Amino acid sequence: xxxxxxxxxxxxxxxxxxxxxxxxxxxxxxxxxxxxxxxxxxxxxxxxxxxxxxxxxxxxxxxxxxxxxxxxxxxxxxxxxxxxxxxxxxxxxxxxxxxxxxxxxxxxxxxxxxxxxxxxxxxxxxxxxxxxxxxxxxxxxxxxxxxxxxxxxxxxxxxxxxxxxxxxxxxxxxxxxxxxxxxxxxxxxxxxxxxxxxxxxxxxxxxxxxxxxxxxxxxxxxxxxxxxxxxxxxxxxxxxxxxxxxxxxxxxxxxxxxxxxxxxxxxxxxxxxxxxxxxxxxxxxxxxxxxxxxxxxxxxxxxxxxxxxxxxxxxxxxxxxxxxxxxxxxxxxxxxxxxxxxxxxxxxxxxxxxxxxxxxxxxxxxxxxxxxxxxxxxxxxxxxxxxxxxxxxxxxxxxxxxxxxxxxxxxxxxxxxxxxxxxxxxxxxxxxxxxxxxxxxxxxxxxxxxxxxxxxxxxxxxxxxxxxxxxxxxxxxxxxx
Length: 481
Hints:
Growth Hormone, Chain: A, MFS, Major facilitator superfamily (MFS) profile domain-containing protein, membrane
């Protein structure tokens, strides 16, 4: 007869399955929730001047005040995104998404009743920034949790739909301003932001929809299963009892390397101080060396910051070249067309993007950004510059859409939220530093070209450093193998 303990071990080994993300099913509704979230929080960003022009003129805000508002908005996004991971230790993802949606709605609806610059900074700067920072992080996180093989396809589809909505937004705002005025337009946009609560309801925890897939049982897995039975029998969680002869039968030796092959032996680390425990409860300090100081973090942060500064300054550059309003509008339209077309392309080639390498594609997009901006400065032909603007839109898509996928490729799934928080914080800090510096270069030299060359140098730096880092990491991995 088989003993009770062995029978328990056999029953345990018969469960030859593991839980994996659904890669579909409810995940498609989660993708819709991400589209709603991204569209309601970011689609109207390009309409800032149109929406708030009447208020800015009524309270006589100067350019410095508007720049200050953008800085406050960026820092609110940065700190909110950074502390999202810590907030998830206090409340669930859906509760945090509900709170952030409420904050963002207060910000958008608050702009309807604002009467002073201080209220403008609080509603359009602090509240909207906090809501956007948390919702963007959570939306990327939950899509990352629901999809593995189809992650690139779904994220590309989400970004494509968001891009379409962003192109429709200026048309909607123009129509609304003509029919309802600035206050009515802000009220409508505030009502649209309330759809974030629908997105929150669709954000069900991934553990509710996990799939069971067959699990291949190996010698190591069998030993671990038997070991768990012994632990349950002894009712203790300390070092399990295992005869060394059982391992010797497999390896012929009982060295530390052999034990580590079959079991995850925890290291007895030093006792942590109270301050360190508090810091680690708020932020994931392990990411500082492995992610924050790598090109996977610095690259997207620097490029996104430079991209945002450039698109704000380039219309003024075109006007200084005596371009007409129609030509400037055409340039911005082609920029959006290049962005949208690339999003559609990414959706079509999503199956091959991981094979090509997400980081390699990102660096290629950064290279296009540097070359297209340089070519624009070296050309005086309107047609050629419009072509370069289309290429700039292609580069913008690579920089914006692939950012979450770069983070996914660089860190473990459970660290994604913390890594996105670090990236958002870094982007906010860089925007506060690079933005004024580039503006100062423009004012001192009285030349937009000088400022643009400074931004191009950031793209070039990433194009040089990132491939070097990838080569070094590839060689280290080969040595380990």
